[in-house]
Structure formats: C-alpha cells, structure tokens
Amino acid sequence: AxxxxxxxxxxxxxxxxxxxxxxxxxxxxxxxxxxxxxxLVKRVEPGHGMGVSVVVSESExxxxxxxxxxxxSNTGS
Length: 77
Prior knowledge:
- By secondary structure, the chain is an alpha+beta fold.
- It has a single domain, classed as predicted glycosyltransferase like domains (Thrombin, subunit H).
- It is 22% helix and 44% strand.
- It has one helix at residues 59-75; strands at residues 2-4, 10-14, 24-30, 34-45, 49-55.
- It has a five-stranded antiparallel sheet.
- A hairpin with a 5-residue loop joins strand 1 (2-4) and strand 2 (10-14).
- 9% of the residues are buried.
- The mean pLDDT is 89.
C-alpha cells in the first residue's frame, strides 16, 4: 500500500477497498529494522483510502519511525 500525509499521529493509506471507521490493525514498515504501528481507522474515502491514527508502542520502533519522519521532512516528501 502507498501512504501520504504521514505524521507522528497518523497517515493516509491509499487503498481501493479501505477498511471501515473504527477498524484496528497492525501495520509493519520495513526500514533498517521492522517497525510495528498500531493503527485505527478514523476516516474513509471510498475508492481512495483511509485516514488512520498511529501508535508506536515499542521505544526502538518509535526511534526508527521518528527517523523516517525526519528523513521525509528533509526531502520534502
């Protein structure tokens, strides 16, 4: 899946068939090491995707996720 509007508190996940508001799931980002994100669907745009809130529970994953966000903000993505 592709993402956009990624931040410390959430992101938009592009999906033709998104989940429903209130659905929760675990996403896994593959960076230097895998990062687990606990996600909760907050908003749905049918045919386009869903806005989700994100919680990173492990401190090491939090550091990797913050590093990703920093890298993205420096590249203008």
